[in-house]
């Protein structure tokens, strides 16, 4: 169980978003989330990755175009850097909130294997996961130029929430709402931000291949 956040737009100071993740981890739903934290910061042509198995701390001076961050409350695998999110493959970063039973193996968490499935194809991953027992398969993902968020929940929908907002050029997704006008992402719904526009796709019976 985790708290997570993604924000993407023009180059700016993104420290406030990391500050809000800190607040969610310490004071939000089912807090504290103190079993490690991490973030991936996209800044022009650079990608910075920071991870720790220690409780989340405040981080200053996060300037960039996109930030994806995660604070963990472990439900299965032990605390280790390899299982600390966000995960990164090439330029694609990913964070998941929930538990997918029996997916974790060989010392890698369920979230790690879920990410590998998503990289092989969103429709196939969701179809496969739906045959398993899970609490939530909510995730956020970005490559620094586009972003997407997916929500599908079987237990505790009030905790496994996802919200998004578009403010000017900046698109932000969070497990809890900050200030401003937010929209709650419905169950089995994919939200994609690309080229300054937001599109929602339902994933009931037909799962869209748009990420």
Report on this model:
With about 210 residues, this protein is of the alpha+beta class. The protein has a single domain (about 1-200), classed as Aminohydrolase, N-terminal nucleophile (Ntn) domain (Glutamine Phosphoribosylpyrophosphate, subunit 1, domain 1). The chain is built from 3 helices and 13 strands; from the N terminus they run βαβββββααβββββββ. The strands form 2 sheets. A 7-stranded antiparallel beta sheet has the order 3-2-4-1-10-9-11, with helices on one face. A 6-stranded antiparallel beta sheet has the order 5-6-7-8-12-13, with helices on one face. A hairpin with a 2-residue loop joins strand 12 (about 190-195) and strand 13 (about 195-200). It is globular. About 45% of the residues are buried. The mean pLDDT is about 95.
């Amino acid at each position: 169980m985790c708290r997570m956040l993604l924000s993407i737009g023009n180059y700016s100071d993104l420290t406030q978003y990391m500050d809000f993740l800190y607040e969610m981890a310490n004071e939000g739903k089912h807090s504290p989330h103190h079993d490690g934290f991490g973030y991936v910061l996209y800044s022009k042509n650079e990608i910075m990755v920071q991870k720790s198995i220690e409780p989340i701390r405040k981080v200053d001076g996060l300037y960039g175009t996109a930030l994806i961050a995660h604070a963990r409350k472990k439900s299965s695998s032990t605390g280790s850097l390899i299982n600390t999110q966000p995960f990164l493959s090439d330029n694609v970063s990913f964070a998941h909130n929930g538990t997918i039973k029996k997916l974790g193996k060989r010392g890698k968490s369920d979230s790690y294997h879920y990410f590998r499935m998503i990289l092989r194809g969103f429709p196939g991953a969701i179809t496969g996961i739906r045959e398993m027992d899970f609490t939530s398969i909510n995730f956020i993902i970005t490559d620094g130029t586009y972003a997407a968020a997916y929500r599908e929940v079987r237990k505790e929908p009030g905790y496994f929430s996802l919200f998004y907002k578009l403010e000017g050029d900046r698109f932000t997704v969070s497990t809890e709402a900050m200030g401003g006008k937010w929209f709650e992402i419905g169950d089995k719904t994919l939200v994609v931000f690309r080229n300054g526009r937001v599109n929602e796709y339902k994933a009931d019976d037909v799962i869209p291949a748009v990420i």
